[in-house]
Specification:
The protein is an alpha/beta fold. The protein has helices at 8-25, 44-52, 63-69, 107-120, 146-155, 176-197, 213-218, 228-231, and strands spanning 34-38, 57-60, 79-82, 100-104, 124-129, 161-167, 204-206, 223-226. Strands 7-6-5-4-3-2-1-8 form an eight-stranded parallel sheet.
Amino acid sequence: MTSPLPDIQANLGRVREQIRAAAMDAGRRPGSIRLVAVSKYMPGTYLRRAMQAGQHVFGENTVQDAMSKLPLLQDPRNEWHFIGHLQTNKAKHIPGNFAWFHTLDSLKLAARLDRHCRARQTELNVLVQVNISNDPDKHGLPAEHVFGFIEELLAAGHTGLALRGLMTIGQRGAADTERQREFAALRELSEACATRFGRSRFLELSMGMSSDFELAIREGASIVRVGSAIFGPRPLPTPRPA
């Protein structure tokens, strides 16, 4: 039996209201928070419904899935974020197709992305992924390695990359108090990076998903990545590398 289509417009309205309320509770402007609708593995019909409801910022996790959709969803208002782990040999697909890359944790990948940016005469906004919880199952840099990584990244002089801030993923199944502690730790690390490397490079904090974005907003998230709360449960595809 076919499942009914989710009411994406209503879901978006609910999520936007939750963002507004969390921001107000934290004394922040709701308009300072960017909602990335995580559309990984979702069919184009779902994305079109979101676009009709005024959502134009989308997040994709794999190159294969993204490249099957982007050409069919052309709209100058759309802004695409790559939010999954990326193999270096797939870097050529990011510049020109995505405006933001959330998961930078390798100098080799940075160099490859920069090379393709310069070849296409485009710039890519990048966030450094931090494994703030030291979870062995997650990608990202340990917090204690972030300063050294950024020093080397900036010394490389990658003109195609614009460093914008940090990103993390909260622990799955952790208590709210633990997730909030992790988000606070990333905010504190971002503030330390801003002091050391320049505030203009650390204006963005990408943290918080469907189950914890309100906690993340209270701890300073400027980008939240929300999927199932908008589109419903995602299909279970055959796993493929990014």
